Amino acid sequence: TDDSVIALGHCTQRRAEFVMRLYHELNFAFFVYDPTCLLGICFRMVSLTIEIGSTEISATAFANYGIELIARGYSIGSRLGTLALKLAENSKYISYVIAAVKQYNSWVVEPLHAIAESHLLGFYAGKKIGDEFSSSLNYCLQIITCFLCGKDLTQLNDTFNDYIMQLLESRKKWFLPQSSIFYRLVVELIEGPNFSPHDHNPNIPSELAIVAFAATAKHHELDLLIDGSKLMRSFLFRLDMSKCADVLDRVVNATCQLRFTTITAVFFEGLISFAMARQTAENNEWIIKGEIALSYMKRWESTKWNFENKIKLLEAEKMHCLGYFDLASKLYVDAVESSKRHKFVHELAMCLELQGLFFQGRNMAEEALTSLRRSVRCYRNWGADAVAERVELYIRHHFGH
Question: Which end of the chain is less packed: N or C, by CB atoms within 10 Å?
Fold first, then answer.
C-alpha cells in the first residue's frame, strides 16, 4: 500500500544508493536515445526501494514507473505519481518529481489548468533548494501547458520571449529547442504563418536548426514536439494538410512516455484526417486515419475536463464525413458546450468554425454565419489574430460580409 511504502525505513547501504543514482542517470540518457528501455530501469528502481529501503532518489523511481504505466494504458500509474510526490516532500528532488509527475502523469486525472499552476510551484520549489535545472524545466513546462490551455497569446508571447532571452543570457540552453518551438507557434498565431522569432533574433534557433538537432541527437520526444507544432500550424492556417506530419504511427502503437503535447498532436491529426476526407477522393483512407486518432483519444475519456470536448469534436467530424448529419449537428453543439464549460477558448473557436462549415454544407447560411462570427471572436479572445483574419476572409468570400 501507499502507507507501507512511505513507512519504509531509510536505506543504509552506500552501494545500493550508488546503484539507484546510476539508474537515475541512465533514465535520463535512455529517455532521449532509447525510451523502450525505461520500463525495465524504473521497475528495477522501485524493486530496489522495496527490498533495501527508501533513498532520496526513490521518489523519482515511483514517479517514472508511474509514467511508464500510464504510457501503457494502466491508470494505476497516476496513483504512483501521487505517491512519488509524497515521498519527495522536503527532499532535494521535489522540483524534478513535480515536473515529471505533472507533465507525464497528472493529465490523466487532473485538469490541465491546475497542472500549469503546479509547474509554477515546482519552479519556486527548485529555486528554493538550488535545483536550477528542474526549476527551469518546470517554468518551461508551465508556459507550454498554459499554451495548451488556451491562455492569452499576447501574454505568452512576452513570457516565452523573456524565458528564452534568460536562457541565452545565462548560456544554460537546457530547454531552448522546446521553448523555441512553441514560441514560434505563438508568434505565428498572432502575426501569421510566415513570421518567425529567428528572423528578428538569430540567436533563437530556427525550426530547421531544431529539426537538424533532433535528428542528430535522435531525440524522439523533440521530434514529436516538432511534428505536433506542424500539425497545429497546418490545421489552424489550412495549409497543405495532405503533406502534414504523421504522429499516429509513432504514438498509437508505441509505449513512449506521454505528454499532453503528444495527445494534442494526435487530436490535430484526427481533425486534419476528417477534413481531408471531405476534400479528396481517397476519403476512406483519411476516415480510417481519423478513426484511429479518435479511438486513441477515447482511452482517456474518463478525464472529462481535458478530453470531453476534443472527443466530441472528433466524433462530430466523423459523423459529418459519414453523412449522419443529425447526429453530427448534436455533437458539434456538445463540443461547443464542453469547450466553454472546461475553459478551452482556443478549442471553442475551432469547434465553432467547424460547426459553421458544417452548417454551410447543409445550406444553413444564417446558422453558418453566426457560428463563424462567434469563432472569430473566440480566436480574437485567444489572441490568435492571424487565424481570426483567415476566418474573416472566408466569411467575406463566401457570405459577402
Answer: N
For cell 486513441, the residue is 296
Rounded CA-CA distance 349/119 in Å is: 26
Name the grid cell of 26. Answer: 541512465
Q: Which three cell numbers stand for residue 231?
A: 500539425
Look up residue 86 and give its three cell numbers. 509524497
CA distance 187 to 399: 29
Cell numbers for 171: 548560456
Q: Which residue has the higher pLDDT, 275 or 1?
A: 275
Indicate yes or no: pTM above 0.70.
Answer: yes
Query: Do the Cβ atoms of 103 and 259 come closer than 8 Å?
Result: yes
Q: Do the Cβ atoms of 157 and 187 come closer than 8 Å?
A: yes
Residue whose C-alpha is closest to residue 307's, from 135, 91, 23, 109: 109
Torsion angle, CA of 131/137/139/143, rounded to 10 degrees? 180
Indicate if the pLDDT at residue 244 is higher than 90. Answer: no
| Separation CA 272–CA 285 (nearest Å) | 12
